[in-house]
Queue: 3 jobs
Job 1
Amino acid sequence: MAHHAKATALYLAVIAAAACLFASLDASAAPGATVAADDAEPSWHHDVELTLRPAAAPSPALRYRLLPPAIDRRPGNAAEFYLEAAALLEEIDRATQRAINRVFDMPIEQLRADTPHGIIEPFEPALQKVAEGARRDHCIWELPTRSDGIHVEKPELRHISKIRVALQLRSRLALVEGRFDDAWHDYQTLMALSRHMTQGRSTSRAFPALGGVSAVLRQIEDAIQQPQAPNLYWALSTLPESLLDARTAFEFEEGRLWWELAGPQRGDALLRDELDVEGFIRFITAPGGLRDDDADVPLRDVERTMALTFLTIKYPRARQWLIAQGVDEADIDAMAVHRVVMRYYVEGHTAADHSLLKWGLLPRGEAADHLHSGMIQEVEGRLHREDPLMLFPHAGRIRFGYRRASDMISRRIAMLRIIEAIRMYIAEHGTAPDTLADITAVPVPADPSTGEPFRYERNGNTVIIASAPDGEDAPYIPGFRFTLHFEN
């Protein structure tokens, strides 16, 4: 408790000092977005060359799916299997993990010669559990978020990267050895695990899920270059639109302010007058959250003094802000001082958060004209100018980042579908199409982020498919370009 009191005093000292110091800062000191030079050469974030062969659609057409089909799924909660896998991975020593990290993403042609025999064996028991979980019919993490807060321990997160790396290496070794069906089984496992990671209330799982799907797409780029590789157009085309739907997690992230500062059991009190001056002082002197075991600890004089100093400094600004929001002055004057200040910070933070969050919740493509990579800096710069102590829009920031990453995945999937449509076309016609419009046997997707067709060039047996370069059409999403060399 002495450590907590010392940290509390320091925290409040910083708040009080910053309130005085930043009040005199010039608005020009606020951070802002940088702009690229107009004469910069076009570039693409993902610029890859592939060597491919023609391939007709498999028979049956849906032989390959990127998620385990219903007939393979069994009753049960996938989360239980993933947690068992996490426990098994605790036994993996660092030397073994470092060995697998060194080789998992090396070029396919080097894998056979440079991969130590049996390197994947220590991971097999855990990977078996993950495969079983990926083929269960539901995933409920059952973590006590409401009672214990958003920082409740999530043991599987410590090991998700180990699982991803091990599955990537095992599937790539299967490709090298010509065992495509075994590699595909691991793709399904990693895709299902990634989808399950987005289910529930935690955004801390959602971002590793994006990494898992991206890893599978990288694997597919390797797989389609192998001799006798099947055509994966229908496998990619039949993925669900809501592949990684983390909406529930982001709804909980909107409540992060309450869980961070007040604790989930007390958060709603901040919107009422139930939190008296004593409660408010405890609120701002417990940056880790107001907890029941703090309730009987007397407040120190320094904590009380500095909290009241903070209220005195911030009350005039808070009062003017509420007036600007349309709150009647008489109603404001009837509020307790701490109530006015708290409403200012909570509601101001929420308004800033929603200014970003709203765009991340629109359907894909509708927000493209409004999103750009400097939006976060613009919002945070405005907050900094208005009040340097205003909490930055955490939920909006991470939702914007998640939207950007998931839109990159959607763009990549669409381009891989086109690549497979071209392989299908060549298998039938003997040559690549002159334009994408020549492909009529299957739909050719547009860029899901802009609604515009992808760029297409053909020069003999070489084809280039590209989105707009970085920063051109959908400036918040990096560009993708594939250069395809076709062999007969």
Note: The first strand starts at residue 46 and ends at 52.
Job 2
Amino acid sequence: MQSSNLQQLLQSFSSLELRELRKFLTSPFYNTRTDLVQLFDYLVENQSASKEQVWQHLQPDQPSMTKSCGC
């Protein structure tokens, strides 16, 4: 499977940079969307996850991403 640009970018960060990015994402001043934090956490923990796996983790009650958006 080919990594997405976002996955490649996250893999290039050090653990310190990942911690600081998470702090930024959880700051209510910069971000009010909790789903972005969930996405970040999932991608950091599952670096080889496919788009379908990410979708199923974030939207378990929704149909497949490819079926719902025509991707």
Note: Helices lie at 5-12, 15-26, 34-45, 51-58, 65-69.
Job 3
Amino acid sequence: MQTCEIIPTSIIALLRRKTGLHIRTSDRKNILTAIHARMKKCGIRDIDAYLHLMEKDGEQGAAELRELQSQLAVGETYFFRDKGQFLLLETRILPEIIQRHALDKRIGILSAGCSIGAEPYSIAMLLHRLLPDGGEWKVKITGIDINEEALAHARRAIYDEWAMRSIPEPFKREFFLKREDGWHLPGAIIEMAAFQRTDISRESLPDYRNGLYDFDLILCRNLFIYYHSDKVREMAANLAKALVEGGYLMTGHGELLGGELPSFTPRSYPESVIYQKILKVPWETRTETLPVQFIPLSPNPPAVNNAVIRPNDHPPVTHDMPGTLSGGAPSLLKEGRNREAAAAASIALAADPDNAALFMVMGEAQANLGAFDSAQAALGKAASLDIHSPRPHWILAHIEEALGNMAGAIGHYEKALYRDPSFIPAYLELAPVHENGGDFARAAKTREAALNLLKSMPAEKRIEPYEQVTAGELALIVEKMAG
């Protein structure tokens, strides 16, 4: 069989055109392994012949593309992956959903890219504990994936030590039985989840025939990183159609940064950002009540624009623009008017080219617009002009996460903390990066450092950017994540 050490550009172009997959440099070794495995399975010795097979019209070519795609999107998974996000689900999101359905006692949850089932079963265990009278509730947790082997594993519900490495001990004792072939889940938890092969990058939602509709919560974590930004926007819009009004979409950290999400409002919590489907009728006019006090992140960003905003591109300055240009740019950014904020900052920088704060506004606005190259340039300039501020590296870390470069994200979080060792957000956001990379010791150490800092602060102090949460309240949250 002919092998190669680089992926032919023709295959990269085909995968992007027909699947929307984004081939990152860090993925190429795994992709080559998958291609060679599929060539061997198909009895094809020449890579050009394999390309020809995938290019074929009809079911034969489409089937092989699906097979290769299913191998490429196999991600690592384990129970209760990302303690912060599961704490947010346990303490805020799921209780709200339960209260919302106190009368009809029906809950629907979708785990997209569920792999071997650790995520949907983790949700099932949480609900088993949270539901006040579980036997009276109809809970539908659906796990979907494109890999049939992973789905078969999920249905067996037998797991090795590696999948169990992050599960809290109380959950392990309550829900698992250790046998010779691994850890077994009980029937009561298994019956709460169902699994099916569905490709959300190709198949339209809602899908009433297969029960993929009216979900209260959709988890789609660490799946968008495999796709190009235009495909990510399409997939997010597709998932929104399967959510009820006011339902939630939870993604991996930074996966939707810079995306155009007209169907969602981002909600920011110390544990994570989560996206709520926009309500056509405000909750305050309905009979249901919401117990959660939301901490808003920002309004929805405008359409993505990958071009650098130049002085000639800005909208005309009117008397309606708040304050001076330099003062107005931060206000515009805070209001979520990212394009106008970038334009105002650009104009003001012409008169004040060494203003670090203006470069910071420019960088944040461009990041929100998805213009990551321009954002990185502006934030780099801000960092060089203000050598003490942690914020440029903090936002640069977000961008690296959105690009799937976790090593780069770690580097920028560490630079932010070098500049300001008391900058709490960097600790809280660095910890899950370590955790999701399997470095639980460093994640625990990072959270411990944050906790020690919070306990040293006045309990009533407000912590930027979580202005509605005090140091004392945040310390309790971090203690739960650490536990």
Note: Confidence is low (pLDDT under 50) at residues 283-325.
